[in-house]
Amino acid sequence: MDNTNLIGLDKDKAIQLAEKLNELLANYSIFYQNTRGYHWNIKGEKFFELHLKFEELYNDLLLKVDEVAERILTLGHTLKHNYTDYRTTSKIKESVFISDGIIAVEDILTSFQTIIILQRELLTISSDAGDEGTNALMSDYIRLQKKLIWMYSSFLKK
């Protein structure tokens, strides 16, 4: 009996990929909502600059949420889509009211670290499964996020 799914991946490896992608989806979803909160609540000297940067970031995160969800479906699996699951699965925790730009940027950098670790794990799993689609997606995300980390770190003068 053939143990491959409709896109030619080993079914067991596809399950492992889907589970890790659901974890990534949860983290992206919390990160997205946190960043929306920073955008809405930012105050202070760098308001105009950070308000725009946070909007750019949450728009990018929203696209990634959709791409990761569609990748799970492409693998032939069901995605988790409620905040109860996200809150229990995500390593990124919901932020409380944050209006200080420095604290928000520090939290964004910490969230990126969490996301990149998960994406590197997915690179390993997708490489082992021969899943070029997930591999390319994660590689592209990491490349772009490294630049964002450099930019946000430069803002903090780190």
Describe this protein with a few key phrases:
158 residues; mainly alpha; Ferritin
Major β-sheet profile: none
What's the CATH architecture name of the domain at 11-29 and 66-90 and 108-155? Up-down Bundle
Q: What is the highest CATH level, the class of the domain at 11-29 and 66-90 and 108-155? A: Mainly Alpha
Secondary structure class reads mainly alpha
- Report the β-strand fraction as a percent range: under 5%
Mean pLDDT: 95
SSE string, helices as H and strands as E = HHHHH
CATH superfamily placement of the domain at 11-29 and 66-90 and 108-155: Ferritin, core subunit, four-helix bundle
What general form does the structure show?
A: elongated
How are the SSEs placed, and which strands pair?
Blueprint: H1 11-41, H2 47-74, H3 83-89, H4 101-129, H5 132-155
Helix pairs in contact: 1-2, 1-3, 1-4, 4-5
